[in-house]
Amino acid sequence: MPTTISTLLNEYILTLRHKGRTAATIKAYACDLRAAAEAFPQDISAIPRAALEAWLAEVPTASTQARKLASLRTFFAWCLARELITGDPTLGLEARSATRRLPRPVKGDGDRSILDAAIAGYPTVAYRLMFTLLREAGMRVGEVLALNVGDVNLAPGQEGLHVRDPKNRVERVVILGPNSTEQSMRLLRRHLKALGPDMPPTHPLFCSNRKTRVRYTTVVWHWNKLCAGAGLRDPDGTPRYTIHQLRHTAATELLEAGHQIETVQRRLGHRDIRTTMGYAEVSDAAVRAALEGGPRRS
């Protein structure tokens, strides 16, 4: 039987209590580790550092990311002390600065075209659909993986996805349409048809070969495979772009197309419009680069 975050959680919480940690700290650590256990159900020795880094990158705020990283660090240090693992996968991971950073969309039309072609040609339809939803609708990976069959509505004029945000405990509808998300809708219809008409609404939209909900690490593995096949790798062999940058790219393109900031905020599910404003700053920077790219007048 594998030794997982989930199987160790109760014992670890007892250890925190014996060490005199406050109730608030224990509650926060337990919440973070339950979320990690859902994202990483495999044996703790098989959790790669890159997957943890990608998972933390999805956290919207620097303070929450720092807390989650602290929770992971103390847990894996405890595992290492008990010789449950031979190496700490959190070593070298750093929480981002509280200073707000601009989003990082995929650079240039060239790389975007290459990436779009790679997604459109990805051989596994389910993962092609996942990447397309991330690319067209700007969803988070966790939101896509949490979708159930009943969350999909493709009725004309009502197309959308019912999304649950476990962090903020809110629900929203990601609007779909034949113009803005044409490929997503086509692949959704194909995917639902393959699942069959008798599939219960609570059944996960994306399942593994074991008939369980697809794991975050599996999606990242397929993303790395896609980037390798498309030649989008840095000299050290790592993907040139993270999977979360699909969301950044979708949002930036909406603003570049002239959509109102409130529309983009709604699309992304941002509670604070200041978060969305970061994408507007990226677009402004692109405009400045284009305007100032020519020769200066004397």
Could you outline the blueprint of secondary structure elements for this entry?
Elements lengths: L4 H14 L4 H17 L9 H9 L4 H20 L26 H13 L4 H13 L3 H5 L6 E2 L6 E6 L4 E6 L6 H14 L20 H15 L14 H12 L4 H8 L4 H19 L7
Helix pairs in contact: 1-2, 2-4, 5-9, 6-8, 6-10, 10-11, 10-12, 11-12
Mean pLDDT level: 87
Roughly how many Å is the radius of gyration? 21 Å
Strand order of the largest sheet: 1-2-3
Judging by the overall fold, what is the CATH architecture of the largest domain?
Orthogonal Bundle
Total helix count? 12
Give helix and strand order, one letter per element, not per position.
HHHHHHHEEEHHHHH
Helix content: 40-55%
Q: How many extended strands?
A: 3
Describe the structure.
There is one protein chain. A hairpin with a 6-residue loop joins β1 (152-153) and β2 (160-165). The protein has helices at 5-18, 23-39, 49-57, 62-81, 108-120, 125-137, 141-145, 182-195, 216-230, 245-256, 261-268, 273-291, and strands spanning 152-153, 160-165, 170-175. It is built from 12 helices and 3 strands; from the N terminus they run αααααααβββααααα. The chain is mainly alpha-helical and 298 residues long. The protein has a 3-stranded antiparallel sheet with strand order 1-2-3. The model is unreliable at 294-298 (pLDDT under 50).
Summarize the structure.
The protein is mainly alpha-helical and 298 residues long.
Can you tag this structure with a few keywords?
globular, 12 helices, hpI Integrase, Chain A, 2 domains, 298 residues, disordered C terminus, three-stranded antiparallel beta sheet
